Amino acid sequence: MSFQQGLSGLSASARNLEVIGHNIANANTIGAKASRAEFADLYAISTVGGLSNTPGIGVGPGTIAQQFNQGGLTSTGNALDLAINGGGFFQVTDESNPTQFSRNGQFKLDKDGYVVNNQGLKLMGYPATAAGQIQPGVASALKLPTGGVDPAATTASILELNLDSRVAATTTALTPAAATIDIQDPATYNNATSSTVYDVKGQPVTLTYYFQKAGTDQWNVYATANGQSINGITTPAESVNAMAPIATITFPPTGGNPIQPPGAIGDVTPYTYATTGTQTAGTPVTADGTITLPTIPAITLTAGGTSEPILATTLNLKGLTQYGAGFGVTNVEVDGNAPGSLSGLNVEADGTLTARYSNGKTKAAGQLELVNFRNPNGLQPVGGNAWTTSAASGDPVRNVPGQGNLGLIQSGALEESNVDLTAELVNMMTAQRMYQANAQTIKTEDQIMNTLVNLR
Predict the structure, then answer these.
(1) Where are the chain's structural domains?
(2) pLDDT at residue 239 is higher than 50
(3) Positive or negative: CA dihedral 384, 386, 392, 395
(4) Domain covering 150-339 in this structure, CATH number
(5) Could you read off the pLDDT of 350-407 as tens digits, one per residue?
(6) What's the chain's average pLDDT?
(7) Phi, psi of 64, rounded to the nearest 5 degrees
(8) Which residues have a Cβ under 8 Å from the Cβ of 336 and sit 6 or more positions away?
(9) Mean pLDDT across the stretch 285-305?
(10) Can you list the positions of beta strands (E) in 165-284?
(11) How many of the other CB atoms lie within 10 Å of CB of 19?
């Protein structure tokens, strides 16, 4: 008689209980994956006889298989809590030992600006240039910028708006009649809108555009900076707010975009309308309707200082329309910016880390690189919710989130453990019964042996 079957059964049941206990212990561990003990029956193989009439000798260890199915996502509101919704692993490194792979997205910033996990390992991805351009290639430890954004002077603006074709011309309201516009008198123009431009120091200047209907399908455009004309004239002397227009626009009868690019006044020379809608004096314009504004002079700022002159600023007016609808601005685009300091961070679904600055600007600070494996079950667990490669797992396949079979990044969320606690408790009861049953076979074998020994 043999105790082998019962002993192997006890060993297998104990191993199964260990795996179940490990799963239960990690039921609340972020990014943890459940494991399953797998076993195989044992036979004593003879080279001369078959196995058809041979009883087995018990159970032997098979493997502990990891279950990499998706865990549930829970919201945290922390921008650096990241969850992978789909396949793939984060890459983390200490920059000296082999790279580790994890599904745990509990990341933080260390004192040097690196994105790290609770073990101090650095998250890996692609860096970005100072201008915010991602540099794909070999992944390295991601480090967020600590500096701010330098100021930049405005060089170009775009206006898109509709001028109401139903309104009457306002040039007749001017006093004296030879004047061009009086910005203090709304009766001398029809509409106005503003945008903020910046000098080389990043100091803001409010640029206001005034639209004056001069006749059927024809409009004058004037501009002031903080209330001061950027194209002022000294005549007629009776009107202290007289100024030269920066452009004149002729619309087609349909009211669509200007039939020709608007002209621009580059000096104080008076101009007249030509039949084509261009002007007889001024500077050339580009084919897309971009004019060059006069130099915006030094302006007294709200805080009391003085701005720097803003040179060679362009304005695109090709998007203007003149329909039978109310005045409405649909788009204003201005380049340039004030200085700004880092104020926050967003992580996009494709893994792009977007830095937010106090001046409202954003730019990419890097991009995560995820990896996947042909056989994730072959990964070697090393603790700390991480794995390393092995011969069984194969080499990692790298790409950005959302590409190939890689999942998307969910910022402000974490992936919970995929342990099913109810199922584990049921499995534990079953394993306990199996342990008891195997112990019973040993007890029965012992009783039989005792009976044989006591035979007379």
Answers:
(1) 4-69+418-453, 80-148+342-415, 150-339
(2) no
(3) negative
(4) 2.60.98.20
(5) 999 998 888 888 889 999 999 999 999 999 999 888 999 999 999 999 999 999 899 9
(6) 83
(7) -105, 105
(8) 151, 152, 153, 154, 155, 197, 198, 202
(9) 79
(10) 191-198, 204-215, 218-225, 228-229, 247-250
(11) 19
